[in-house]
Amino acid sequence: MSSDDMRQPFTHLDSAGQARMVDVTEKQPTVRSATAAGFVRCSATIVAALRDGTVPKGDVLAVARIAGIAAAKRTPELLPLAHVIGVHGASVDLEIVDDGVTVSATVRTADRTGVEMEALTAVSVAALALVDMVKGLDKSVEIENIRLLRKTGGKSGDWIR
User: Fold this and answer.
1) Is 70 left (phi over 0), alpha (psi -120 to 50) or beta?
2) pLDDT at 120 over 50
3) Which residue among the candidates 59, 93, 132, 138 is catalytic per the annotation?
4) Is 132 a catalytic residue?
């Protein structure tokens, strides 16, 4: 973190140090997007079952994808200081690789605040849904490295990890 970043006041605290929701009433809506990613580490047995489509609970990737999209739209219900905004686009992609599944999500809006938390929530819930679908085969599944990759728009502009 740069020294400039450290001098910024905490916008979610009032003058008495109490949590508050940032007032974005006066901000103009702009086009914004955010992409996040994570990883679900799986055993070779689970990877094989995912590739073969033989997981007993069904189409794991489809369920995880829908769970992630639904989660992006419900982020303010989970995070108490997140704004209710229009999620105008959300995609969740899952890719089976040799040691697990990569999960990524991109969320878009034309609103007064960004969609970083929506993208992170989409990845988190998609990963949780994947774990739920395969845990009967192997309980050692792990969710790793959920992080924001990029964001565009808004007052702070574009950012790429």
Assistant:
1) alpha
2) yes
3) 132
4) yes
